[in-house]
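Methods — Computational structure assignment.
A single polypeptide chain was analysed. Its primary sequence is given first, followed by the predicted tertiary structure written as structure tokens.
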Amino acid sequence: MCATCGCSDDATHTVHGLDGHTHEIGAADHDHHTHDHAHVHEHTHDHDHAHAHDGHHHEHDDHHHDDHHHDEADARASRTLRLEQDVLAKNNLLAERNRGWFAGRGVLALNLMSSPGAGKTTLLERTIRELGRELPIAVIEGDQATQRDAERIRAAGCRVVQITTGTGCHLDAAMIAQGLDALAPSPGAVVMIENVGNLVCPALFDLGEHAKVVIASVTEGEDKPLKYPHMFRAAQLMLLNKVDLLPHLTFDVDRCLAYARQVNPALRIIEMSAARGDGLAAWYDWLRNQVTAALPRATAPEISRPSLTDGDRRA
């Protein structure tokens, strides 16, 4: 059992490539999920079993039992903490490699996270159709099962790779590296990563992305930022989706936004409706600004163009 999020140790995930081929990755191949399961079976029961046969009385020291159970609990807690640190450390190392890969190619990677049904895929479909000619967008889809979302993204006219995580509840840096191998985005592309629908674990796992975007919906409770603070604290942008449904709901927008800013005062917030189009211009402007911020990293390698002489480079 994964100490960090509860994902099954023997879980496999599958990368569904552009050519229809699939690559199943088992626990043995999943480097960052190599958990230390060396169970310490030091059950040193120093019980006094000296049997007084005259009355068959077993002299057990109750205080010793209490100390033993406390020691076992402390040892388990220590192992759990160590495993959690190891899992996140390995993931963070791979995330840094991904970050360097993105930076070297001037690729903007965005990690889109939400609870199930908040509208991530609908937002991606509309963004691809309306902005796809301006920005070269590619998508990595994450779901526990099925390729349904990847099929929707492909129908919108976009290159997409689906990663199915099985019992896993989030994408991680190793999965993204494998997805990028299959996706092969062009330099200067925008890679949208649609994470597994979950407001807990995806916030903990760095993928090497440029920014995290959390999509909330007015069909959810306005107290979601308080209930899931790690998610909203980790995000750079919050999209409050489905505002077209507000006339039919009792959702308090002002309260939700206040809660979000209470958790993360620096959080940028855009109210929108992916279905009706409200707020999409602000979302597209934010995307363009993020691409512009990533461009200097893309142009840096140009100093080594073949047309330049060594003297030109030194100059």
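Note: Residues 62-105 form the longest helix (44 residues).
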